[in-house]
Amino acid sequence: MKDKLTGPILKRRSQAEDGSTTDQRLLDTAGAGEWVHTDPWRVLRIQAEFVEGFGALAELGPAIAVFGSARTPVDHPSYAVAERVGRQLAEAGFAVITGGGPGTMEAANKGACEAGGTSVGLGIELPFEQELNEWVVIGIAFRYFFVRKTMFVKYAQAFVILPGGFGTLDELFEALTLVQTTKVTRFPVILFGSSYWAGLLDWIRTTMVAEGTVSPKDLDLVTVTDDVAEAVAVIAAAEAEREAAGQPGGEPAPTEG
User: Fold this and answer.
1) What is the pTM of this model?
2) N or C: the chain end with fewer CB closer than 10 Å?
3) Residue range 150-167: mean pLDDT, rounded
4) pLDDT tens for each residue of 70-80
5) Three state DSSP letters for the chain
């Protein structure tokens, strides 16, 4: 049995055997009226996670979130690509934020760390063991997915999304929704690996656009590339545009009226 992180708490041996997670206990339906005695107290723990996250990352500076599969083996081409992405982002002056786990996340953290950049891992409590990888230099272990998601969006100036599974798709569509609804502005969303994402983009184009559930221009919200240098250039251009507009850190521009 491996160690289990429950937020900032480390559990070992028999203490690590509970397969439930804090999110699961929060979202599972309790008995009638039971929430009155439990959920209000959870608010304090949720508040504490926000405070810890904001405190740890407040002085991070420009940062890019890199997403991808935790199942990517070390000898897979995506691992090498993620490592190059992390390295070149660090060389361009960006911190690199991942979910802190293995696979693609580890590779991006490794590239950033070896290049002398700031390598951040935002871990999450899961029913199976997952520790922060060895290349994380600033690590936070979260209990709640929604708190962790807030940290990704608040402290990243762009998302680079490599081939991945449901979690990667979740981050992709959350980012696209925030950009589409202008909750975040000038926020590049880069899909790396044109062959992997081609089927999804074709479906969006031929089904969603055709049915009118999204606009054709919504496809312009993503940049698809197989070139690490192009991805970094797109991010750097967006950052320069933010700075020219007087928006350090990607804060929304003030509106008149």
Assistant:
1) 0.82
2) C
3) 96
4) 999 999 999 99
5) CCCEEECCEEECHHHHCCCCCHHHHHHCCCCCCCHHHHHHHHHHHHHHHHHHHHHHHCCCCCEEEEECCCCCCCCCHHHHHHHHHHHHHHHCCCEEEECCCCCHHHHHHHHHHHCCCCEEEEEECCCCCCCCCCCCCEEEEECCHHHHHHHHHHHCCCEEECCCCHHHHHHHHHHHHHHHCCCCCCCCEEEECHHHHHHHHHHHHHHHHHHCCCCHHHHHHEEEECCHHHHHHHHHHHHHHHHHCCCHHHCCCCCCC
